[in-house]
Amino acid sequence: MEVINTLGRRKTAVARVYLKEGSGIITVNGREFKNYFPTPILQFKVNEPFEVTNNQGKYDVKVNLDGGGIRGQAEALAMAIARALCEVNAEHRPPLKAKGLLMRDPRMVERKKFGQKKARKRFQFSKR
Hints:
This protein is of the alpha+beta class. The chain has helices at residues 33-36, 40-52, 70-88, 93-98, and strands at 4-10, 13-21, 26-28, 31-32, 59-66. The protein is elongated, with a radius of gyration of 18 Å.
């Protein structure tokens, strides 16, 4: 099996994943992923595609992450890994799709408008 290259996005985070057969090592921006994602919730989010398809410890993952916050990066990474697993074996697609790991979450931060305090909040109105 050669190296599989996929892309995952969430908010402004972009994850570029290189997946190949190996011993289950996940490297994020040159660091071990448990150091990069310190909380168990984010670690679970990253490992979820492997758990859904019963592929824990079978693939090495090298990741380039940039943009966004830590939560958006974790979800972008999960999406990229899920896409790579679909390229490895098409039978992985239905369970990953059922968990919502292949769906791009389109929600983004709404921009601030001029003449307002934030995107929707306005300055206090004074009648007199």
